[in-house]
Amino acid sequence: QQKQNKSGFKGIKKVYKPTGELKMFFEIWQERTHYSELSGVKLPYTPENMRMWVCQFLHVLPKGTFKSLRLDKRNIMLATPIEHEHQDRYKAFTDRKEQLLRETYKK
Questions:
Q1: Number of C-beta neighbours around residue 33 at 10 A
Q2: Which residues are paired to 58 by β-bridges?
Q3: Distance, CA of 44 to CA of 21 (rounded, Å)
């Protein structure tokens, strides 16, 4: 799809196919407390700010590489957007990653 921006140039607007992630994110939001699983900090965004809210859900194992875990809630942790960028610095993240890798390759 094309749309015109403020400068008058036309660009391409990306059309996303439904993956089931958003539905899963809402389920997780209902099931878990709204605090970072990495630091314990209260998460700053709610679903009203959808663009930033989804940045608080991080895939422990990459969804592209581990396609079977894309919609596995065990592979999702809640964190602030800044923590999301630096997730490998947190012990809780690396512990979960190691656990999921053991479970995945044990099969």
A1: 11
A2: 77
A3: 20
pLDDT digits 0-9 by tens, 14-24 = 666 788 999 99
- CA nearest neighbour of 60 among 93, 20, 99: 93
> What DSSP string runs through 36-99?
-TTT-PBP---GGGHHHHGGGEEESS-TTT-GGGTT-GGGEEE--HHHHHTGGG-HHHHHHHHH
**Token pair listed for 21:** 């992630």
Q: Write the pLDDT tens digit of every residue in 14-70.
A: 666 788 999 999 999 999 999 999 999 999 999 999 999 999 999 999 999 999 999
**Among 88, 68, 70, residue whose Cα is nearest residue 79:** 88
Phi, psi of 81 (to 5 degrees): -55, -35
